[in-house]
Amino acid sequence: MKQRDFATRSIHDAEKPLKDTGEYGDVVIPIHLTTTFARKEPETATRGMDYSRTGNPTRQALERKLASLEQAKHGLAFASGLAAETCVIISSLKSGDSIIAGEDLYGGTRRLLVNFGSRFGIDVKFTDLSSPENALGLITERTKMIWCETPSNPFLKITPLREVCGLASERGILTVADNTFASPFFQNPIKLGCDIVVHSTTKYIGGHSDTIGGAV
Question: Which PANTHER family match (predicted)?
């Protein structure tokens, strides 16, 4: 069967089929404001839900939909873009590792990398990734990640992701792409070989300057 196009996935993916629409038959995913979920059995969470910090049906629907739009296997939603980036860094790097990052990153991301590097012994090297060969001279056996932002915020510098991901993959290095400014509508970094995609959903995905969020 032909894959659904972007517009169809943005509307229908992660929506419940009619048989699973709940007690009231809602066809649009409701906003679950509860902090805690009742259990039929003390040892078993109801549909895997027990506490909204660890899982919430509304948030999971958002995660599934964003993953679908990015053509990824999984997605995670966060309270901000920097929270999403922090999760990627602390789950993927350790003291002694090295990361290569684009020189033209969003200011908050650059400060985050510099602060993490100085506090936790992670070597951070900035370079112009619009020319992928610039990364080659910086790669060492300690290099575990290349961090790209394309188009960059705010100067819209472009990183050729396919080339960067190719040289990283050959050396067993993770690639992260901040896809905030392109959005999944224009670009799917995973299809270009990227391992991890991050978003500040505050920007184009949110669309109206009325909410703060992030996603991986």
Answer: CYSTATHIONINE GAMMA-LYASE, TRANS-SULFURATION ENZYME FAMILY MEMBER
40, 53, 73, 119: the catalytic one is: 53
Q: What pLDDT is recorded for position 145?
A: 99
Instruction: Provide the 10 A C-beta neighbour count for residue 78.
Output: 22
What is the DSSP pairing of strand 214-215 with strand 77-78?
antiparallel
- Is 106 one of the annotated active-site residues of the chain? yes
- Chain-centroid distance of CA 196 in Å reads 6
What is the average pLDDT value for the chain, to the nearest integer?
92
| DSSP letters spanning 19-72 | GGSTTTT-SS------SB---SBTTB-BTTBSBTTT--HHHHHHHHHHHHHTT-
Residue ranges of domains in the chain: 6-69, 77-215
Mean pLDDT value across residues 192-197: 98
Instruction: Tell me which of 97, 104, 178, 195 is the catalytic residue.
Output: 178
Q: Whole-model pTM?
A: 0.90
Residue from 97, 104, 106, 110 carrying the catalytic annotation: 106
The catalytic residue among 9, 50, 203, 204 is: 203
CATH class assigned to 77-215: alpha beta
Given a cut of 60, is residue 152 above it in pLDDT? yes
Helix (H, G, I), strand (E, B) or coil at 15: coil
Whether residue 203 lies in the annotated active site = yes
Both structure tokens of 117: 């590097």
